[in-house]
Amino acid sequence: MKKNILVFCSHPDDLDISMGGTAAIYARKGYRIISVIFSYGELHYLKKEVIVKRRIQEVKNSGRILGYNDFIFFGLPDSKIASQIEEKNIKEKVKDLINRYGPDKIFTHSPSDPMPDHKTVNKVVFEALKEIKKDYGLYSFDVWNVSNFKEKRRPKMIIDISDTFYLKIKALREFKSQTHVMIQLAPAIFIRAKWFGLKNGCKYAERFYKLM
To answer: Which SS3 state, helix, strand or coil, does residue 211 take?
Structure first.
C-alpha cells in the first residue's frame, strides 16, 4: 500500500517552486503525492475561464515531469483566499482530506512567508491539524523567502535533490503563463538549492522546517 504525502499550497506552481525536487524524490520512492491547491492563480488575467484551464493543464504537465498527478483545487479567489475560508468551510475540507489520506507527511507554506495568501493557507492547515490532534508531521516550505531567520530554531529536514534539481527546473518551465513570476524567483530558487546543498554536503538541496 502506497504512503501518501499531502501538500497544501495557495497557487498551482507553489509546490514546484518550493519542493519540486523533493516531490520527485518521494515519487521515485513510490509515494503518492496529493497537491491541494487553494486558488487557480487567475489574478491579472481578463478571461478567468481561459486562464483556469491553462493553469490546470500546466499543473498536470509539471506533475507528470516530477512523477505524480494527483491534484485537488478549492477554487478560492486569487489574492483573496482569506475572504472565503469560512464561507466555503475550507478548514473542514482540509481536515477531511487529512483524515481520508492519513498522510505520512504534510507540507505547506511557511508562516513567515510575506504573501497573505500563503500565510492564510498555513494558518488553516495548522489549525486543522491542531483540531485533529494527531501527529502527521507538518513541514513548512518557502516560496518568496530567500532565507528564513524566524524559524531557524525549529527542527529542520534537508532533502538532497542533486539528482532531481534539473527535473524541478524542467517542471517549472511548464508554467508558461507565469514566466514573469519565474524570472523574479529564479535567482532565489537557485541560491536556496545551492546554499542548502553546500551546507549539507551535496550539490543541491531543499530545506523544510517541522512545525508540528
So the answer is: coil
Q: Write down the CATH number for the domain with range 4-210.
A: 3.40.50.10320
- Tell me the per-residue pLDDT of 130-165, one tens digit each, with 9 for 90 and over: 999 888 999 999 998 767 777 878 999 999 999 999
Burial annotation 57-93 (CB, 10 A radius, 16+ → b, else e): ebbeebbebbbbeebebbebbbbebbebbeeeebbee
Tell me the whole-structure pTM to 2 decimals.
Answer: 0.95
For the chain, what are the domain ranges?
4-210
DSSP string covering 146-210: S--STTTTS-EEEEE-TTTHHHHHHHHTT-GGGHHHHHHHHHHHHHHHHHHHHHTTSS-EEEEEE
